[in-house]
Amino acid sequence: MDDIIKVTDKCIGCKKCVPACPVGIISMEGKMAVIGDGCIVCGQCEDICPVNAIVINREVNTDGLPDVNDFRHIMVYAETAGGSLMSVGKELISEAKLLSQDLGCEVWAVLVGKGIKNHANECISYGADKVYVIEGDEFEEYTNDAYTEAFTKLINETKPEIVLMGATSVGRSLAARIAVRIQTGLTADCTHLGIDLKKKILLQTRPAFGGNIMATITCENYRPQMATVRPKVMKLGEPDTSRKGEIIDFAVDIKAVDIRTKILEVIRSGEEKVNLADAEIIVSGGRGLKKPENFKMLYELAELLNGAVGASRAVVDSEWIESFHQVGQTGKTVQPKIYIAVGISGAIQHLAGMSSSDVIVAINSDENAPIFNVATYGIVGDAMEVVPALIKEIKREKGIK
Amino acid sequence: MHIVVLVKQVPDTTDVKINPETNTLIREGVDSILNPFDENAVEAALQIKDKNPDTKVTALSMGPPQVETMLKDCIAMGCNEAILLSDRHFAGADTLATSYALSKAIEKMGDVDIIMSGKQAIDGDTAQVGPGVAEYLNINHVTYINKIEYEGGDTIKVQSNIDGGYSMLELKTPVLLTVLKTINSPRYPSLKGKMAAKKKEIPVWSAEQVAANFERIGLKGSPTVVVKIFTPEAREGGEFIDGETAEEKAQKLTGHFKEMGII
Questions:
Q1: What is the value of ipTM here, to two decimals?
Q2: Cβ pair B141, B177 in contact under 8 A
Q3: Three-state DSSP class for A197?
Q4: In terms of CB atoms within 10 Å, which of A8, A76, A144, B253 comes out highest?
């Protein structure tokens, strides 16, 4: 470790670095600060040290790396599922459009699949200046081999400075493979993107340690700068159907024998269209429901409000409800108009997945539950009393008996 | 059949608290645990071993020396071997450098048929290292697996969750698989397993021993760097809805719903 970060004998034992360490791994041994295991090399201690006793070796080896100035423009993967354009692609094109204003560059969308070219104009309406279309039978469903090869070829020929993908099951696999093949940096699940105007590089902000802290990450010397972003994190722009853009067919020759995954069956079930990500109203349940059967009333409430049912990690781990209902750090990020949290205490991991909802309603018997700190409306009470009362009241309003 | 399970020691992030004065993590009293998703990966490997007795399962981890305890837990669960990749030169590694280091350790092992890991680690939540290792080794991979069917030979069938559904895939070994929590319930260590773990020597491999290129490991080999750390902005709380009874509170809330135009 001391090759990278070390405390020199200039240390005066002032202890200022101890509380400055965001991951809490600096301790004092006698009059000297000691850096323990788990250092994330963020430099907070180096900044706060009054006598420059903490030294970080940021030596980078740029030998053999391509010239960063050869890379321009932002590339976005406009992911499709079962032939339709996913919302996350449009969200990322919208976000890329904003970033492109700071960089003075173009936005390029990439469509990969079979029979997906008809989505190109929609990509343009959200802000793409160019749309690369990679079509063929071998791209009908995602495979690592076909998609990694196609994207790598496209990136190597077009040299974008930034590549953005959705942090979907496909995006997370694909981006990780491309980053290794091209040998560049990749930041997962960013919740905020920005541009360092001086250096003209991408600032990638993401939660770490279960959402307890946020980290801003850069990739200064390698290109492209790659990031994945979860669905529903970036705001969808207003489409402008009068926008003009260029549609370019990009040919990639993949031999079927080179595809090592054999797809036996793809089921896009109706059930998952519980579609939490797109629901305007979500009714979520946690341990406070006391038993799995009580989820029934949440389904009833959700149905009345035309919403979807979510869940905390605790009840998913206890197998009260299937994991695709899970909202939070290890589940889905949601941004509905109204999020109703029933019997959810509001652990930081859960808040990370829903705190950007427009309105949050919390129903919990513990008035000190952290969920109330983020709730627009809080009701302290027993869920088993409040929810049935709410169902009755809404039915009355809607004139349902 | 040789299965390598990639395991990571993580702070129990559900337990992590923030010091409100300094906005930093309080590590004291927070346990270091085997990443919960990796525990499911160990179980999935052991289930293949249960059915195919000539299977060897090796747990592999990268981290500081104290990770040995966690690797002993893997032995106690039923893994045959465990290896710790540990070297100060690995410090500060991002996912690219970590994937590289792990792939070098797997290359050193030689004959590996299946590599498994959890879908992501709960401290970093990147889900990038598994696919990264597969790419370095030039083997195929599948993520988000909730079912594995293996009947011997070099063919393996998996069910993988995709957005809006799932897919059934057939793969040839060698292959890397990352699993969901829903795939199984990890077993508890047996008494025999605990005894075995006590006696087990855990080899520690250095960067040099796995023939890693020093330019590609640790902070030096990491394209991404952390430039700023801060605590997330807290959302402002709103109002409590008062009332004598649940009915009264429900009425008031329904009134707000009406104002918002949702009923």
A1: 0.92
A2: yes
A3: coil
A4: A76
Helix (H) or strand (E) holding B167: strand B165-172
- Banded model confidence at residue A53, pLDDT cuts 50, 70, 90: very high
Length of chain B: 263
CB contact under 8 A, B141 and A144: yes
Highest mean pLDDT among B16-20, B22-26, B190-194: B190-194
Residue length of chain A: 401
Picking from A337, A271, A277, A329, the residue whose alpha carbon sits closest to that of residue A299 is A271
Query: Are B131 and B164 spatial neighbours (Cβ–Cβ below 8 Å)?
Result: no
Q: Are A230 and A166 in contact (CB under 8 A)?
A: yes
- SS3 category, B99: helix
Q: Are A284 and A355 in contact (CB under 8 A)?
A: no
| Alpha-carbon span A205 to A190, nearest angstrom | 5
CA distance A368 to chain B (A): 12
The tokens for B71 are 């690797």
Instruction: For residue A235, give the DSSP letter.
Output: P
In the block, which residue shows the tokens 């038993």?
A: A291
Pairing assessment for the beta strands A359-364 and A377-380 based on DSSP bridges: parallel
Q: What is the pLDDT of residues A193-240, one digit of tens each?
A: 999 999 999 999 998 877 778 899 999 999 999 999 988 889 999 999
Note whether A219 contacts B224, CB cutoff 8 Å.
yes
Return the DSSP state at A5: E
Contact B257 A266 (CB under 8 A): no
Q: Which of residues 202-221 of B touch A (CB under 8 A)?
A: 215, 218-220
Question: Which residue, chain included where needed, has tokens 């890693």?
Answer: B212
Cβ neighbors of A126 (< 8 A, separation 6 or more) are A90, A93, A94, A97, A236, A237, A239
Residue B68 distance to chain A (closest CA, Å): 14
Specify whether the CB–CB gap between A313 and A285 falls below 8 A: no
pTM for this model (two decimals)? 0.89
Q: Which of A189, A355, A379 sits opposite B241 (nearest CB)?
A: A379
The answer to whether the Cβ–Cβ distance between A24 and B24 falls below 8 Å is yes
Parallel, antiparallel or unpaired: strands A80-81 and A74-77? unpaired
Query: Closest Cα partner for B203 from B117, B96, B83, B87?
Result: B83
Nearest chain B alpha carbon to A35 = B91
Cβ-Cβ contacts under 8 Å, A210 against chain B: 13-14, 16, 122-123, 125
- Is B191 near chain A, with CB under 8 Å? no
Which residues in chain A are contacts of B186 at CB distance < 8 A? none
Q: How far apart are CA A200 and CA A394, in angstroms?
A: 52
The torsion region of residue A220 among left (phi > 0), alpha (psi -120 to 50) and beta comes to alpha
Hey, are the CB atoms on B226 and A42 less than 8 Å from each other? yes
pLDDT in tens, A271-321: 544 578 778 899 999 999 999 999 999 999 999 998 999 999 999 988 899
Please say whether the beta carbons of B60 and B5 come within 8 A: yes
